[in-house]
Amino acid sequence: MNTITLPFDKFTALLQFDNDEALYREVAGLFIEQARTWASELRAACADGDHDRIQRLAHTMKGSVSAFQAGKARAMAQDIENRVRARDGSDLSAECGVLIRHVEALADALRQDIGTC
Predict the structure, then answer these.
(1) pLDDT of 52-95, one tens digit each?
(2) Do the Cβ atoms of 66 and 74 come closer than 8 Å?
(3) Which end of the chain is more exposed for a tag (fewer CB within 10 A), N or C?
(4) pLDDT by residue (tens digit) across 32-43?
(5) How high is the mean pLDDT of the chain?
């Protein structure tokens, strides 16, 4: 038997939606629609070294991935927020790249789960 490891906890996520599958699917669809935009904006913010924009995007992404109990993505977004807040001036390109990959993986998993292209 093959076991697929999802980048989120569907059971717990459904609990957040009061086990309302239609609401879960609707919010998942919205996440899928936004994921590409967030990734593109975060890449641009990192390229520009715009830490304020990076922090806003990381915060937005953190809240969104939290709805699906995507712990790794949430932790990375939180780490980015903390580093920007600390104003250490470091390059966050690598961390932003990891967050983007987590968000894209979540979008792909949600797409498969709810059956959209």
Answers:
(1) 999 999 999 999 999 999 989 999 999 999 999 998 777 889 99
(2) yes
(3) N
(4) 999 999 999 999
(5) 90
The CATH homologous superfamily to which domain 20-114 belongs is HPT domain (1.20.120.160)
- Classify residue 56 as left (phi > 0), alpha (psi -120 to 50) or beta: alpha
Q: Burial code of 71-82, b = ≥16 C-beta within 10 A, e = fewer?
A: ebbbebbebbbe
Placement of tokens 């809240």 in the chain = 63
Instruction: Provide the whole-model pTM.
Output: 0.87
Q: Which two tokens stand for residue 74?
A: 């949430």
**Best CA proximity match to 68, nearest among 115, 30, 116, 38:** 30
Q: Domain boundaries in the chain?
A: 20-114
